[in-house]
Design the sequence.
């Protein structure tokens, strides 16, 4: 077996040095050093557990490749003379097969796990103990397993959990030595294996190895950081650690999850492992966005990384919400005090925020028959300034009447170019061509939300902004038509679904559950505490007992 620190030569030949089907793309980074210098290191980190192992060589193949040919054009060059490179690696349909070729030049032993989780957890520990790669037998992808074994010469197969060989095959076809780890007694093969360790499958593995003194130590001085998440295939992580590599677990599969991962991406090569991080183009986009600086509280994602406690309202006064009861500086102090009441309940920053009504639903049609009134930007700016000065965030809320949400959003383009200003869409106040206010609860179609999202994402890209929050309110199923068609695949945006039902707790929870039903990935949940309409208003402790815990809590 010849495990490699970082990437195998086989992978390098097709990604760093080769022109065919490259999976690494150098980025143009003229301002990277300047932007990286502004990264905060005081923010709370996501879970970052590392596992290191002895490598056979002090320098990784990736480092060697840069020393040989930094630009990939045959001109050569010294290590570090080119821009940092982000490499997006797949984890192979949960089997982990492709990871083995990425990190091993050759090997003689492989650990094969049954599909069920107990077997995979045990197999992961065995793989690290044996310094051997691991593959999982996933029935849905058994042909991937067949192709892998038919393309490799293997001396020894260690099975864990009695994995069933792919249809029409036996493990003995691919190795003269097939041994079972802790072989089961007759009939026991149908019983799930007990978990080898508790907790999250990836972070738990590293904790287990470390606590048992089985986490290898790496002698390489400059290893390329490898980032994984709990969505990365366990087999892939086990193979990488067994090969002697350090891995860092991020709470979410995005390089902007922590200040530390952002800084690493801006100042050197990195590897992301797992399809959840996105393909090469998507990962490059997230690293480019990391250049644009952090958000209040640290890191480059709206959520996770912080929670927000917000006041809702309009600068004109108290009639439209609690924020307007106070001038900007007093209002943000109140929001800050509320955030402090939540902070001791949380292990990540809790920051103050405003949700500022920018366009107001109107009872009269107005000169253009739109039933909506615009607030002058000069009225909104002081509240934005107060929030930002206090380390907070601001959302601009749109109540569109008969006008399109996109047209209203464009009206506030200059405010939205500010880095800590997000956008909130309120379908409740959307009117059809023949509808009038207060006769129905409004709705929008996913297509209209997508129009706004596309425009807002482009605004972020063109103006070098950090990720921007895009919030949508919903308290009835019909308020967002075809919600499953909303495209949340914009790394420039953090999508927030605000379940703002009111009343007694049972009604609020019914709204919460209804809104969350069949909710696609990519949304972060928000909750509203009504000061007068709720009976009673939830305390911070009660609010944090909501499952899942909301990322954004507003007061109205």
Sequence:
């Amino acid at each position: 077996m010849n495990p490699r620190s970082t990437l195998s030569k086989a992978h390098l030949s097709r990604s760093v040095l080769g022109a065919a089907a490259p999976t690494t793309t150098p980025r143009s980074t003229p301002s990277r050093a300047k932007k990286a210098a502004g990264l905060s290191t005081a923010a709370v980190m996501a879970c970052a557990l590392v596992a290191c192992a002895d490598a056979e060589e002090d320098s990784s193949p990736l480092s060697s490749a840069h020393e040989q040919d930094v630009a990939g054009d045959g001109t050569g060059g010294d290590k570090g003379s080119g821009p940092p490179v982000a490499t997006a690696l797949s984890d192979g349909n949960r089997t982990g097969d492709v990871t083995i070729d990425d990190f091993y030049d050759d090997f003689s032993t492989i650990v094969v796990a049954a599909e069920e989780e107990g077997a995979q957890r045990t197999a992961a520990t065995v793989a690290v103990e044996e310094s051997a790669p691991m593959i999982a037998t996933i029935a849905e992808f058994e042909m991937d397993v067949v192709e892998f074994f038919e393309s490799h010469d293997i001396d020894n197969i260690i099975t864990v959990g009695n994995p069933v060989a792919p249809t029409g095959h036996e493990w003995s076809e691919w190795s003269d030595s097939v041994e079972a780890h802790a072989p089961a007694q007759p009939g026991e093969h149908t019983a799930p294996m007990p978990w080898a360790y508790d907790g999250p499958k990836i972070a738990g593995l590293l904790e287990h190895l470390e606590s048992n003194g089985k986490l290898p130590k790496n002698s390489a001085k400059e290893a390329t950081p490898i980032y994984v998440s709990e969505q990365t295939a366990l087999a892939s992580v086990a193979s990488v650690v067994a090969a002697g590599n350090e891995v860092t677990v991020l709470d979410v599969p995005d390089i902007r999850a922590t200040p530390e991962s952002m800084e690493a991406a801006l100042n050197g090569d990195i590897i992301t492992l797992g399809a959840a991080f996105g393909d090469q183009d998507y990962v490059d986009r997230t690293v480019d966005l990391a250049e644009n600086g952090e958000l209040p509280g640290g890191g480059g994602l709206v959520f996770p990384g912080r929670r927000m406690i917000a006041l809702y309202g309009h600068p004109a006064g108290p009639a439209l919400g609690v924020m307007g009861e106070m001038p900007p500086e007093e209002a943000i102090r109140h929001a800050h005090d509320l955030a402090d009441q939540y902070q001791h309940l949380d292990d990540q920053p809790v920051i103050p925020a405003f949700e500022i009504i920018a366009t107001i639903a109107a009872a009269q049609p107005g000169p253009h028959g739109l039933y909506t009134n615009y607030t002058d930007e000069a009225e909104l700016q002081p509240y934005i300034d107060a929030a930002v000065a206090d380390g907070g965030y601001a959302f601009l809320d749109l109540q569109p009447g008969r006008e399109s949400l996109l047209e209203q959003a464009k009206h506030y383009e200059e405010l939205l170019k500010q880095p800590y200003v997000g956008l909130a869409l309120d379908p409740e106040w959307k009117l059809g061509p023949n509808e009038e206010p207060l006769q129905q609860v409004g709705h929008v179609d996913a297509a209209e939300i997508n129009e706004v999202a596309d425009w807002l994402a482009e605004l972020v890209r063109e103006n070098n902004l950090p990720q921007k929050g895009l919030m949508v309110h919903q308290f009835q199923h019909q308020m967002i038509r075809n919600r499953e068609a909303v495209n949340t695949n914009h790394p420039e945006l953090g999508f927030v679904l605000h379940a703002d039902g009111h009343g007694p707790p049972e009604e609020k929870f019914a709204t919460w559950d209804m809104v969350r039903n069949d909710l696609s990935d990519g949304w972060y949940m928000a909750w509203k505490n009504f000061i007068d309409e709720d009976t009673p208003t939830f305390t911070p402790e009660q609010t944090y007992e909501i499952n899942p815990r909301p990322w954004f809590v507003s007061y109205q």
Residues 8-79 have pLDDT under 50 and may be disordered. DSSP finds 17 helices and 22 strands in the chain. Residues 446-462 form the longest helix (17 residues). Residues 2-13+24-290 form one domain.
